[in-house]
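Internal ticket #5521
Category: modeling
Description: The requester needs a full-assembly model to guide mutagenesis choices. All entity lines are attached below as received. Residue total reported by intake: 988.
Assigned to: D.W.
Attached entities:
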Amino acid sequence: MIRLATRLTAGGGRESLIRLLLTGAGMALAVTMLLFAAVAFPALHAHDVRRAWLSTHPAGENQQPAQNESTTDPLLWLQTIDRFDGQDIQRVDVAALGPDAPVPPGLDELPGPGEVAMSPKLQELLDTTDPAMLAARFPGEITATIGKAALASPDDLVAIVGRAPSELSDNEDTLTVRSIETAPISHALTREMRVVFVVGGIGLLLPVIVFVATATRLAAARREQRLAAMRLAGATHEQVGFIAAVEAAIAAIGGTVVGLGAFLAMRPSLARIPFDGATFYPSDLHLSLVWAAIIAVGVPALAIGAAIVSLRRIRISPLGLAQRATPSRPTPRPLLLVAVGMLALALVVVWAGRANDVADTTIAYAVGVPFVVMIVGIVLSGPWLTTVVARGIARFGRRAPSLMAARRLQDNPSAGFRAISGLTLAVFVGTVFSGLSSSIIANQHFQGSGLSPDVVAAAPSPKFPHMWSAAEPQGPVKVTPADLPQFPTLDPARTTQLVQDLGAIPGVEHVISAHAFPDDPDLLEAVIRSGAEIGASVLVSCDDAAALGFNGCEGTTVLNIGPGGVEPTGFAPSMSASELADLRVVAVAAVTDGSLGTMERARTELELGIPGTTAMTLRDIDSETRAEFTTMQRISNIGLTVTLVIAGCSLAVAVAGAIVERRQSFALLRLAGTRISDLRQVVLAEAAGPLLMVAAASVGLGLLVAYLVLAAGAAGGGSPHFVMPRFGFWLSLVGGLGVALLVVLATLPLLNRLTALDSARFE
Amino acid sequence: MSDQFLAARGVTRSFGTTQALRGADLDVTAGEIVALMGPSGSGKSTLLHCLAGILTPDAGEVWFDGTRIDQLSDRARTELRRQRFGFVFQFGQLVPELVAVENVALPLLLERQPRAQALAAAAPWFERLGLDGLELRRPGELSGGEAQRVALARALVTRPDVIFADEPTGSLDTLSGELGKDLLVDAARDQQATVLLVTHEPRVAAYADREVVVRDGRVHDRVLA
């Protein structure tokens, strides 16, 4: 029987072969997508594992120390994030206090004083850059190359700089460590983002399943005649079912093998895509045997199941009559499932916001179940929505094609919706994903300050002597200068030299010295009374404030220096230049012409002049925030586009199936003088009408779900407020739908060919 | 050029290695009802398709109302079929999703007539062809005879110059078949339409003004007694 089925599948002539190839290609695409989805999380985890050493804590505080701390010598460890042209450089200055100090991964031994170990990419950058812009920041000789074990990505810029203990011991940010951390800490995916990724994963999976099922059913209409002839020749219903299953299995197994091959071939290229902001080593996209087995068995099983189910819906009699079960009239009742799912999801989010000790996986499942309930509700209510759309088309469509399309949709709304179900789900899930991610991002997004983007500034971190707490008495509190965050004192001679050196760099237009607040309670009180917010505050002259881009100076400007940038918050009573000069300098900034060379030279000078600090630009602060934003948006938009394209292929296959099914009817219409353009419009209206209307409904529902989730999360005390998805989402949505419609257009030549009067048979 | 309303001149047509027509000649005058007879595979359906501009002959000429239609573009032939020809076949000519009155009105809708106007033009045919009360039925809810009469109404609704009918009653029982033929001939005469009727049943051919026999891809005239 298998041999017969194989011969029937492969030996059915050119049309049969094309059908087999199309179905197999669909399977291959689905398998490739699933394999990439399967390796995505392990690949992100591999990043976290290799980045773990950068989360090393002082002695006794590492979660998973790489060394037994009782057997190691102390190591002084000063970790900073330097920057060059918008890229992060992870820098760790180390000084061993004994021969058995712990060694970070990727190195055989610690660099000694005057020695530097670097990642290959950083060495490459140094080789191609003016030394005054970058190399001068790394005192010493490059003696080692940091290995892959310490690099999340082959593009990572990392330096481990050997120092004498005396060079680090005075810096307040220096840690004394006895072991290196190995516990992976997710930098790329926050807890919220993991939940969002569960949503995205479901979004990718569903259109793939719909695609596999649709591709398998492509041949159903043509297969009926052949199987009916076999029934007439004496084949039992079971034998006919077996043959259909073998046909589906051949395409699915072939497609799975091709999909696996495509995955392996594309893996190096995919590794170059920085999903979480960093590229991957190809080996990071490692496919576990379990996942390979699940996909290799699951996809053919799904295809065979779809073939058998489609056969059960069409009872093939020996007379070749395809007797279809009358579709039941769709009702809007399944929308209740959507409402129930929405409510359950909101409750889960409230619960998750309050229960901080719940594992991520538990939250993922708790979010996943109501989400699946909603998706089931959408799938079940889809035919009803399709009926509503069809009624609208029938009522408002003025031409014959729209009437024919509407009647076809009304006649079998389930089939009409099945064709677009993949796209509908992709749009719904994509909208929820984008609604959540854009809101999370928007609430983290840097608010910006008036600081000119061409300024490079360096200031050591201030110490916070006074932490306000809720336990303190309410009411007015007297704030003294001692309560303010205290900036470390810079070496005056070195600072003077720094200001001179900065001024000598071509392209540096102005050098600014920021001064510490004087120990003068009256001045502080005057500043507070003027309405200024006091934090990590410094004072600059009006000229310096203007050079920084802050105008309208009244007296001396008070600037607050925070992690989000520099902002003027008010003004202090006017001081003379000499009064200001008497205050100690705590930060230095250079206003540049904005060129890369000038800015990086200025940064190098600042970091050499104020050791242990990282000079920052507004671009760095903004790009740091934007990097996360870009990563999340990129993942979101890539996911949406990919799912829309898969779903578009699914729609195209369904449209092709519908054309094949009606070739005789369409051919007779053409014969009677119907324009081929009218028939094209019938096909397009059947696909595009419900697609666009149901997609619009999906977007609305997706936004509502995202809004409710965030509102519920906010009620639980955790989540940010809802923000509409940004331009990239809408572009991906419209672009993806456009591509899907273009894919549908690609099936129209099939309409021309199948209904060509020369090849059709009329009787 | 042919003086005849509809004419085939030395038409040949092959399908692969099978030669269906081998120089067929036929002249049909306006308003004439002609029955094309012949055994299976003789080429009668192929000749009808060539005359209707559905197929283009490999050689020879096809003329309609002073125009050589085998040289027209596909678009022009499509327009000709839609505007001046009507078709009735044995099976499957109704759109299953449309109700009967919409099926009849379909050619008018395809001519961009407003829907209300097209449906109004289609409605009288139901009474005329004995289909009263079936306007809102789908093709699957009609008997074979009723469906064939709906198809006939659709062929006639545009008041075509020529009706091409290929075994129009072949799938019907005798009574339904007779009724169908009566209606076809009556309506055609009423509208002064030319009818080209393919059949292999002599009693069907008896309704025609003239009977021709197609054999081995050639036309042999047979004058009715």
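Resolution: model delivered.
Comment from assignee: Residues 618-661 of chain A form the longest helix (44 residues).
Ticket closed.
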